[in-house]
């Protein structure tokens, strides 16, 4: 038997279908005996895994790992399994081992790390464990050889979603994952592509999943969504693609196909691409149920955008603020503030730019984060890697200071002055109070009104210092911020 483990990553109200392990399950379906254990719905995943190991001959424990809480939860369970059932091989896959393969293998309880797309690598790893091929022949695999040395095989070329079977949704209690959200009462998730063709220097996605983005066909996307609607009564969906819109022709066909499903949905896109879309395509997107689009605006400084290799301009962001307002779609603009090149200037210009966006489209949702670099295989942005000594094991990444770094709670960036950091944090508090996110479906109307009233004078007069009353009010109301949805 193969065990696929999805460690706990979110609170129950935020859990969604574990697409990563479902993708692996899809290639095992009808060819291998397997079980999925999800820590987001199982209160005792360690006990469940141990029970399965004792009941069956388990050949491999595969663990899907993202940095942050999921990594910490996976580390604790795997460490116990290695101690109590040392004969079971353990492989980590997903974003964490793709970006940090050496740190992953430094853990004594991890035998293999899968970098990038894992479906074919998993099947070939099973063959190697059965003596049917060598570990050296498996692309995308990092492992420890017989002497304990780390071996990193060549990268595996990415395949598009159409190359693999559908997710076997029937292997999970889907009703436990279709949770209420701003978009609907039964919100599903879907990933219609893999990879990213862009090269933003602060992001590790292209390092993990390649420099091309491969989409599934519009027919398949429609079919999967229709299945979720008709079989499980899904009424909304969040698309997890890095760039849901690239080709305008693809977008138009997909919109025409999914419009009859009457779904409300959220996705991510780029301002440079969508700013070139026709008005007809924008209206087709809205008719298809698009409610909100996340844009990585990143900075209000064109020089900083060039430093990031983002490939967009501030003018394109302003264009999309206007066009989304005209189309009746809520834009969600994310900023990573405090560029290492000149954090004070970047902060000053970006905060002013955010105010400009709000004048153009007051409904714009604003997400503010400190510039947090990702250590990448190969090169890093500028000389950041000389200023930060990144952890060398999962245990170190689980320490509070690095967990705060991962979650952007406190990056402790050495290039950032304390007063600049406080300005960013205080501005975020004021903006979040002046315009409480519409995605917080639990916040009472009176609470929103209170926050808006308390923060109005601060925003008007640009007085962001020590907003203690807003901090207390947010805690009292339990206001959720979009970037903290999973916590």
Q: Helix share of residues?
A: 40-55%
- Which CATH architecture of the largest domain? Alpha-Beta Horseshoe
Number of helices: 20
Find the count of extended strands (DSSP E, 2+ residues).
16
Number of domains: 2
- Provide the CATH topology of the largest domain: pyruvate-formate lyase- activating enzyme
Largest sheet: 7 strands, mixed
What characteristic shape results from the CA principal axes? globular
Oligomer: single chain
Strand order of the largest sheet: 2-1-3-4-5-6-7
Q: Any overview of this molecule?
A:
It is a single chain. By secondary structure, the chain is an alpha/beta fold. The chain has 2 domains: 2-143, Response regulator (Rossmann fold), CATH 3.40.50.2300; 161-484, pyruvate-formate lyase- activating enzyme (Alpha-Beta Horseshoe), CATH 3.80.30. It has 20 helices and 16 strands. It has helices at residues 19-28, 45-55, 69-84, 95-99, 101-105, 119-129, 205-209, 218-232, 248-258, 271-274, 279-287, 302-307, 314-327, 343-360, 384-387, 394-397, 400-406, 418-434, 445-461, 468-477, and strands at 2-6, 34-38, 60-64, 90-93, 112-114, 141-144, 150-152, 179-181, 184-190, 193-194, 214-215, 236-239, 264-269, 290-298, 330-337, 365-370. The strands form 3 sheets. Strands 2-1-3-4-5-6-7 form a 7-stranded mixed beta sheet, with helices on both faces. A hairpin with a 5-residue loop joins strand 6 and strand 7 (150-152). Helix 8 packs parallel to helix 9 (248-258), helix 13 packs parallel to helix 14 (343-360) and helix 14 (343-360) packs parallel to helix 18 (418-434). The protein is globular, with a radius of gyration of 23 Å. The two termini are 32 Å apart. Residues 377-382 have low confidence and may be disordered. GO terms for molecular function: 4 iron, 4 sulfur cluster binding; catalytic activity; cobalamin binding; metal ion binding. It comes from Terriglobus albidus. Pfam families: B12-binding, Radical_SAM.
